[in-house]
Amino acid sequence: MDGFHFTKAQLRQQATIKGMQPDKVMLRRGAHWTFDSTNFVNTIRILQSKPDSTHHLPSFDHAVGDPVADDITIRPHHHIVLLEGIYLHLSISPWNEIKLLVDELWWVEPRSKVTSSNRLAKRHFNAGLSDSIAAAEQRIINNDLPNSTFTEENRFPPSRTIFN
């Protein structure tokens, strides 16, 4: 799903058009509205309708912080395709169409929110998204937790929940 992030340039342009401050929009990158959800849903629809074709999908380069076009190849012999991302469960449009296009929706629930937050802070720091663990923790409070809360409040029940 990360390959369907709007690029940084697209987000800045959208912010300017809407009269928003681009820097504030960038701080919320990762929220459901920072993804090209329509393109993502349409891509899943194409994968479903053309299983005998080869498809090229975008990935995400964390070093650059933007998607990489056509970096993932799905071939006809790939009978199982796993999609990953918290917004796959959203009950709002156009995300809600995903439920109709996939066989199952699994939800991975952390056993400990504290442990999960600590791991996420380390991941943000190691990826260079934050200058320090403290800054990473602040990023989680300001962005990741609101995204998680929004998803929990606006999602379909999963087919299966896995506790990790």
TrEMBL record:
InterPro entries: P-loop_NTPase. Gene3D superfamilies: P-loop containing nucleotide triphosphate hydrolases (3.40.50.300). This is P-loop containing nucleoside triphosphate hydrolase protein.
